[in-house]
Amino acid sequence: MTLSSLRDARVLAVLRAPSADVALHTADALVEGGITGLEITYSTPDAAQVMRELDAKYGDRIYLGAGTVTTAEQADESANAGARFLVSPGTRPELTAAMKETGLLVLTGALTPSEVMAAVEYGADVVKIFPASLGGPDFLRALRGPFPDVPLMPTGGVTPENLGEWIAAGAIAVGAGGDLVSTAAMASGDWAAITRRAEKFVAAGAGA
Q1: Of 32, 39, 199, 200, which residue is the catalytic one?
Q2: Which of 121, 128, 161, 165 is an active site residue?
Q3: In the sheet where 152-154 sits, what is the strand order?
Q4: For the chain, which domains are there?
Q5: 39 belongs to the catalytic site
Q6: pLDDT tens, 9-62?
Q7: What distance in Å separates the CA atoms of residue 196 and residue 188, rounded to the nearest whole number?
Protein backbone atom coordinates (compact mmCIF):
# COMPACT_ATOMS: atom_id res chain seq x y z
CA MET A 1 0.00 0.00 0.00
CA THR A 2 1.38 3.37 -1.00
CA LEU A 3 0.55 6.84 0.25
CA SER A 4 -1.58 7.39 -2.85
CA SER A 5 -3.50 4.20 -2.05
CA LEU A 6 -4.13 5.49 1.46
CA ARG A 7 -5.38 8.82 0.10
CA ASP A 8 -7.67 7.00 -2.30
CA ALA A 9 -9.09 4.79 0.44
CA ARG A 10 -9.74 7.94 2.50
CA VAL A 11 -11.24 5.90 5.36
CA LEU A 12 -9.53 3.02 7.16
CA ALA A 13 -12.02 0.93 9.09
CA VAL A 14 -10.42 -0.14 12.38
CA LEU A 15 -11.93 -3.56 12.96
CA ARG A 16 -11.90 -4.88 16.52
CA ALA A 17 -14.14 -7.93 16.44
CA PRO A 18 -14.91 -10.48 19.18
CA SER A 19 -14.19 -13.43 16.87
CA ALA A 20 -12.71 -14.24 13.49
CA ASP A 21 -16.12 -15.14 12.10
CA VAL A 22 -17.62 -11.81 13.16
CA ALA A 23 -14.60 -10.01 11.72
CA LEU A 24 -15.13 -11.63 8.32
CA HIS A 25 -18.86 -10.84 8.27
CA THR A 26 -18.12 -7.26 9.35
CA ALA A 27 -15.49 -6.85 6.66
CA ASP A 28 -17.96 -8.07 4.04
CA ALA A 29 -20.53 -5.55 5.27
CA LEU A 30 -17.98 -2.73 5.14
CA VAL A 31 -16.88 -3.60 1.61
CA GLU A 32 -20.52 -3.77 0.53
CA GLY A 33 -20.90 -0.24 1.86
CA GLY A 34 -17.95 0.97 -0.19
CA ILE A 35 -15.15 0.92 2.38
CA THR A 36 -11.91 -0.34 0.85
CA GLY A 37 -9.47 0.30 3.71
CA LEU A 38 -9.61 -2.46 6.32
CA GLU A 39 -7.34 -2.51 9.37
CA ILE A 40 -7.67 -5.84 11.17
CA THR A 41 -6.47 -5.30 14.72
CA TYR A 42 -4.55 -7.83 16.75
CA SER A 43 -7.18 -7.48 19.45
CA THR A 44 -9.31 -9.57 17.08
CA PRO A 45 -8.89 -13.32 17.69
CA ASP A 46 -7.00 -15.11 14.90
CA ALA A 47 -6.27 -11.77 13.23
CA ALA A 48 -3.74 -13.26 10.82
CA GLN A 49 -6.20 -15.88 9.62
CA VAL A 50 -8.80 -13.17 9.06
CA MET A 51 -6.30 -11.26 6.93
CA ARG A 52 -5.44 -14.36 4.92
CA GLU A 53 -9.10 -15.05 4.17
CA LEU A 54 -9.84 -11.44 3.23
CA ASP A 55 -6.79 -11.27 1.01
CA ALA A 56 -7.82 -14.47 -0.76
CA LYS A 57 -11.39 -13.22 -1.24
CA TYR A 58 -10.82 -9.59 -2.23
CA GLY A 59 -7.19 -9.25 -3.31
CA ASP A 60 -6.45 -5.76 -4.63
CA ARG A 61 -10.09 -4.72 -4.37
CA ILE A 62 -9.35 -3.73 -0.77
CA TYR A 63 -6.45 -2.09 1.09
CA LEU A 64 -5.83 -4.64 3.80
CA GLY A 65 -3.69 -3.99 6.84
CA ALA A 66 -2.95 -4.99 10.40
CA GLY A 67 -3.55 -2.80 13.42
CA THR A 68 -2.54 -2.75 17.06
CA VAL A 69 0.77 -4.23 15.93
CA THR A 70 2.97 -4.32 19.02
CA THR A 71 5.63 -6.95 18.24
CA ALA A 72 8.03 -7.77 15.42
CA GLU A 73 6.45 -11.21 15.19
CA GLN A 74 3.04 -9.67 14.48
CA ALA A 75 4.57 -7.46 11.79
CA ASP A 76 6.10 -10.46 10.02
CA GLU A 77 2.98 -12.56 10.43
CA SER A 78 0.81 -9.79 8.99
CA ALA A 79 3.07 -9.35 5.98
CA ASN A 80 2.84 -13.07 5.28
CA ALA A 81 -0.94 -12.98 5.71
CA GLY A 82 -1.44 -10.43 2.94
CA ALA A 83 -1.33 -7.11 4.80
CA ARG A 84 -0.28 -4.10 2.75
CA PHE A 85 0.16 -1.74 5.67
CA LEU A 86 0.95 -1.99 9.38
CA VAL A 87 -0.37 0.23 12.16
CA SER A 88 1.02 0.53 15.68
CA PRO A 89 -0.83 2.48 18.41
CA GLY A 90 2.43 4.10 19.53
CA THR A 91 5.98 4.58 18.31
CA ARG A 92 8.90 2.46 19.49
CA PRO A 93 12.23 2.44 17.61
CA GLU A 94 12.74 -1.33 17.62
CA LEU A 95 9.15 -2.05 16.58
CA THR A 96 9.17 0.61 13.87
CA ALA A 97 12.38 -0.87 12.48
CA ALA A 98 10.80 -4.33 12.39
CA MET A 99 7.72 -2.97 10.67
CA LYS A 100 9.88 -1.18 8.11
CA GLU A 101 11.79 -4.39 7.37
CA THR A 102 8.60 -5.94 5.97
CA GLY A 103 8.60 -3.39 3.15
CA LEU A 104 4.99 -2.46 3.89
CA LEU A 105 3.59 1.03 4.54
CA VAL A 106 4.19 1.83 8.22
CA LEU A 107 1.88 3.95 10.37
CA THR A 108 2.85 4.54 13.99
CA GLY A 109 0.94 6.38 16.68
CA ALA A 110 1.68 9.76 18.22
CA LEU A 111 -0.16 12.64 19.85
CA THR A 112 2.29 15.33 20.94
CA PRO A 113 4.74 17.24 18.71
CA SER A 114 7.66 15.41 20.35
CA GLU A 115 6.03 12.07 19.56
CA VAL A 116 5.43 13.11 15.95
CA MET A 117 9.11 14.04 15.67
CA ALA A 118 10.11 10.65 17.09
CA ALA A 119 7.83 8.79 14.67
CA VAL A 120 9.38 10.61 11.73
CA GLU A 121 12.91 10.02 13.06
CA TYR A 122 12.30 6.28 13.40
CA GLY A 123 10.98 6.02 9.84
CA ALA A 124 7.18 5.98 9.98
CA ASP A 125 5.63 6.61 6.57
CA VAL A 126 2.48 8.03 8.15
CA VAL A 127 1.93 9.31 11.69
CA LYS A 128 -1.32 8.12 13.21
CA ILE A 129 -2.63 10.87 15.51
CA PHE A 130 -4.30 8.95 18.32
CA PRO A 131 -6.53 9.47 20.17
CA ALA A 132 -7.46 12.32 17.83
CA SER A 133 -10.69 12.92 19.72
CA LEU A 134 -8.69 14.67 22.45
CA GLY A 135 -7.89 17.62 20.22
CA GLY A 136 -10.22 17.46 17.25
CA PRO A 137 -9.58 18.91 13.79
CA ASP A 138 -8.19 22.12 15.28
CA PHE A 139 -5.41 20.16 16.97
CA LEU A 140 -4.54 18.41 13.71
CA ARG A 141 -4.51 21.76 11.93
CA ALA A 142 -2.12 23.10 14.56
CA LEU A 143 0.23 20.15 14.00
CA ARG A 144 0.32 20.92 10.28
CA GLY A 145 2.17 24.15 11.14
CA PRO A 146 5.46 22.61 12.31
CA PHE A 147 4.93 19.41 10.29
CA PRO A 148 3.64 20.52 6.87
CA ASP A 149 5.20 17.59 5.02
CA VAL A 150 4.40 14.77 7.46
CA PRO A 151 1.44 12.60 6.40
CA LEU A 152 -0.98 12.60 9.35
CA MET A 153 -3.93 10.26 9.88
CA PRO A 154 -6.27 10.98 12.80
CA THR A 155 -7.95 8.01 14.46
CA GLY A 156 -10.56 8.27 17.18
CA GLY A 157 -13.46 10.70 17.14
CA VAL A 158 -14.00 10.63 13.38
CA THR A 159 -17.64 10.65 12.24
CA PRO A 160 -19.39 11.23 8.91
CA GLU A 161 -20.37 14.64 10.24
CA ASN A 162 -16.81 15.81 10.93
CA LEU A 163 -14.85 13.78 8.37
CA GLY A 164 -14.68 16.74 6.01
CA GLU A 165 -13.24 18.90 8.79
CA TRP A 166 -10.43 16.39 9.37
CA ILE A 167 -9.54 16.33 5.68
CA ALA A 168 -9.68 20.14 5.49
CA ALA A 169 -7.39 20.28 8.54
CA GLY A 170 -4.75 18.33 6.63
CA ALA A 171 -5.44 14.62 7.20
CA ILE A 172 -4.14 12.30 4.48
CA ALA A 173 -6.90 9.86 5.50
CA VAL A 174 -8.83 8.98 8.65
CA GLY A 175 -9.12 5.91 10.82
CA ALA A 176 -12.61 5.08 12.06
CA GLY A 177 -13.39 2.51 14.73
CA GLY A 178 -16.42 2.36 16.96
CA ASP A 179 -18.37 5.06 15.18
CA LEU A 180 -18.11 3.09 11.92
CA VAL A 181 -18.12 -0.45 13.24
CA SER A 182 -20.65 -0.58 16.06
CA THR A 183 -19.94 -3.10 18.80
CA ALA A 184 -23.68 -3.57 19.22
CA ALA A 185 -24.17 -4.23 15.50
CA MET A 186 -21.40 -6.82 15.53
CA ALA A 187 -22.82 -8.47 18.63
CA SER A 188 -26.30 -8.74 17.10
CA GLY A 189 -25.10 -9.63 13.61
CA ASP A 190 -26.74 -6.55 12.12
CA TRP A 191 -24.52 -6.45 9.05
CA ALA A 192 -26.99 -4.22 7.19
CA ALA A 193 -26.52 -1.53 9.84
CA ILE A 194 -22.75 -1.68 9.37
CA THR A 195 -23.18 -1.39 5.60
CA ARG A 196 -25.42 1.66 5.99
CA ARG A 197 -22.91 3.30 8.30
CA ALA A 198 -20.12 2.53 5.84
CA GLU A 199 -22.12 4.21 3.07
CA LYS A 200 -22.38 7.37 5.19
CA PHE A 201 -18.63 7.45 5.74
CA VAL A 202 -17.95 6.88 2.05
CA ALA A 203 -20.34 9.65 1.07
CA ALA A 204 -18.71 12.02 3.55
CA GLY A 205 -15.27 11.11 2.24
CA ALA A 206 -16.30 11.66 -1.36
CA GLY A 207 -17.56 15.13 -0.48
CA ALA A 208 -14.50 16.12 1.54
Answers
A1: 39
A2: 128
A3: 152-154, 126-129, 105-110, 85-88, 63-67, 37-41, 11-15, 174-176
A4: 3-109+122-135+165-206 (3.20.20.70)
A5: yes
A6: 999 999 999 999 999 999 999 999 999 999 999 999 999 999 999 999 999 999
A7: 15
